Amino acid sequence: MSNQSVSALRDEGHRVAALPWDAVERRLRAGGLAILPVGAGAKEHGFHLPMGSDALQADWIVDRLAARLYSDGIDLIAWPVVSYGYYPAFAAYAGSITLQRATFAAVIGEIVTSLQGHGARAVLVLDTGVSTGPPIAEVITGRPGCHHLKIHAGPRYRETAARIAEQPYGSHADELETSRMLASLPEWVDMARAVASPVHPDGPRPGALTPSDASSPNYSPSGAYGDPTLATGEKGEALLEAMLSDLQVTIREVAGAAM
């Protein structure tokens, strides 16, 4: 392969980790949108999913969005996943890492400031978590050109989740998340080890999950919260299509406003 061909390949794609810096500069100047995915790389996800499930999903989502938006003439430039964050609900499970809220907020704020300093007209923070939402909002709300993309918050996703869910309740490594993993990254799912969390008669309560306190409404020996045994790839395909459609609509609006 010629040096010219190698150079052309390096200037393609959407991940800055695989690009030379001058290609990133050129594309930002041409109006490329910066996307910063946030997803835990070390957070328990039950017995049946890996601890890096959020980071894996974040990369998968960004890859699909970049391909879809390229067809719309929108250049999405992706920074590496921020894989450590504010995840206090899972600290009791071995290997799960959480930063202090202020620390996490400061990290996001400094990265966003750097991206804007390098000329990004719009910065999209793709948030795969729940507890990460408030600190991200805290540091980007009111900043011109900054947008908080919460993957579970779009209208199509919420309608689809409400329609297909069979579990009485859930929020983590549950029927919905496991279905998405089965549809997107099935090689990382071990359904033989999927275990439903106990259903407390009073329903779920805010607070940390516990692997040991059987009296808690948030008791889960496995770490899953909900019923992942109900997950299917078909449900996951519907959820992911709804999610990607929601995100694509929002990013199109951002791109139009950034012109």
Describe, in plain words, how this protein is organized in 3D.
This protein is of the alpha/beta class. The chain is built from eight helices and four strands. It has a four-stranded parallel sheet with strand order 2-1-3-4, sandwiched between helices. Helix 4 (101-117) packs across helix 5, helix 6 runs antiparallel to helix 8 (233-258) and helix 7 packs across helix 8. The radius of gyration is 19 Å and the shape is globular.
Helix content: 40-55%
> How do the SSEs run, as a string of H and E?
HHEHEHEHEHHH
Q: Which regions have little confidence, pLDDT < 50, spanning 5+ residues? A: 1-10
Principal-axis shape equals globular
Compute the average pLDDT: 94
Key features of this structure:
259 residues, alpha/beta, 4 strands, 41% helix, 7% strand, disordered N terminus
TL;DR of this structure?
This protein is of the alpha/beta class and 259 residues long.
